[in-house]
Amino acid sequence: MSVFLIPVDGSEYSLRALDYVIERVKQNPAEHCVHVLNVEMPIVGVNVKLFVSAESLQDIYREEGEKIPMPALERLKTASVSATPHIGVGEASQVVIDFGKEVKATEIVMGSHGRSALAGALMGSVAQKVVHLSSIPVVLLR
């Protein structure tokens, strides 16, 4: 069974990853499982914990985390591909890798913003980190 993990950030690049998975599922409609993951950066700071409850923070993460994957889920639904949405909180590349292991993903399919090597080195790239650190095969799409 193919288990696809698609991290989405609302960009055109992550939508390309969806199209790739849709084509893969159409080519081999045997058993498959699709997970769509949105990762929210943690809201940190001393004052945050003083003025915002843990429950309120979870509500913020859930509210923001449900907005971004909606177009992705609609695109999959239109293509008759069922998917399970998930929200992670933390450093994006590590959350993607950990979640991939948790769901026993056979592939992580994600968009790459296609920055130059220099820009990627300076800014750090979630995709680059996932490729470098993941034991799960990673497919990058531009």
Q: Would you write up a description of this structure?
A:
The protein is an alpha/beta fold and about 140 residues long. The chain has one domain: HUPs (Rossmann fold, 3-Layer(aba) Sandwich). The chain has seven helices and five strands; from the N terminus they run βαβαααβαβααβ. The chain has helices at about 10-25, 45-50, 55-65, 70-80, 90-100, 115-125, 125-135; strands at about 1-5, 30-40, 85-90, 105-110, 140. It has a five-stranded parallel beta sheet with strand order 3-2-1-4-5, with helices on both faces. Helix 1 (about 10-25) links the parallel strand 1 (about 1-5) and strand 2. Helix 5 (about 90-100) packs across helix 7 (about 125-135). It is globular and about 50 Å long. Mean pLDDT is about 85; it is low at about 120-125.
* Spatial order of the strands forming the largest sheet: 3-2-1-4-5
- What is the name of the CATH architecture? 3-Layer(aba) Sandwich
Total number of strands: 5
Molecular shape:
globular
Radius of gyration, taken over Cα atoms and rounded to an integer in Å: 16 Å
Oligomer, anyone?
single chain
Helix content: 40-55%
> Total number of helical segments?
7
Order of H and E elements = EHEHHHEHEHHE
How is the main sheet built?
A: 5 strands, parallel
CATH class category name: Alpha Beta
Low-confidence stretches: 118-123
Structural class of the secondary structure composition?
Answer: alpha/beta
